[in-house]
């Protein structure tokens, strides 16, 4: 089968190649063989493909990339609970082996304490940018056929679901009735976060670098949120000035740019009792001069909270499926507009990430052929009171 691999990662001058490798075979009653239909690319993939950043599995030099997957079951072990034709996505992280890691031992590798977790396509395990992958059924999540074209967005949305779940848990410390959310960044994560906030009934504001007439801005407005371009001539220059101009308390801030100076500025614009959630990282080592005492004082005297959030658990994937279906009903085709580029495996080799306005999806198999493989025997419905 064909697979996109970053080769020679341990040698320091890695390259990307479309390779022909052995197709995996299942050998355990709980294993499942999945034909990959499509894989979404995000900032982590950009890092891996451009900066050759991933970590191969122990004893290997190469890494198959890709972690935002949509596939169809082509072979199902007798005890897997899946059937041939089921549409599936896969959770990204696998638990560490430490018996004392209570989170890994309880289905929450997203809170692994040892750092020895594995992430398919990123760290220590091959990913999904290949024609097939095999997986234990417990790491697969069934996707309803109503999301046939959009199932590769379940993983990025699971990141939003995790952070919202975290925010709700943290805020059980008080009576909290959030009204206003500010989202920093208008990449796929920022846009999904803005849409999610709207569905949760919050007034949502997005502050980002894309121009005021960009597709990003249009999508923000299409879900009923407000867009403001940051930093451009003739616009409000700083986040502080922008937040002041809103004239209302900012109860929740979701930082989706990874630009760390913004994270510190966000702490000072957060309302009393508010939460700032950090979701982005950049592979830089910036030094910053900050008003440390003023920030510290604001955090203490106003009960503010800053949390970081990474990855997602199975439950977040399930909630993500529910939420994507809600989004489709709320603003039909909004999610399809988010996917600005579709390419095939070969095209990854010469992909210029700067040419992707919002999100690229790799069709590992031509879309016209998907329908022939997908034969849901039972429709899944995830319904939550969120
Ligand atoms: C993925 C997460 C992963 C994180 C850190 C993100 O791109 O969506 O699942 O935990 O990168 O590797
Ligand atoms: Zn662990």
From TrEMBL:
Residue stretches making up the Alcohol dehydrogenase-like N-terminal domain: 29-144
Keyword line: Metal-binding, Oxidoreductase, Zinc
Domain Glucose dehydrogenase C-terminal: residue ranges: 149-363
Record has Disulfide bond as a keyword: no
Superkingdom of source: Bacteria
GO molecular function: metal ion binding; oxidoreductase activity
CC cofactor: Zn(2+)
Name used for this protein in its record: Glucose 1-dehydrogenase
Organism of derivation: Paenibacillus sp. SYP-B3998
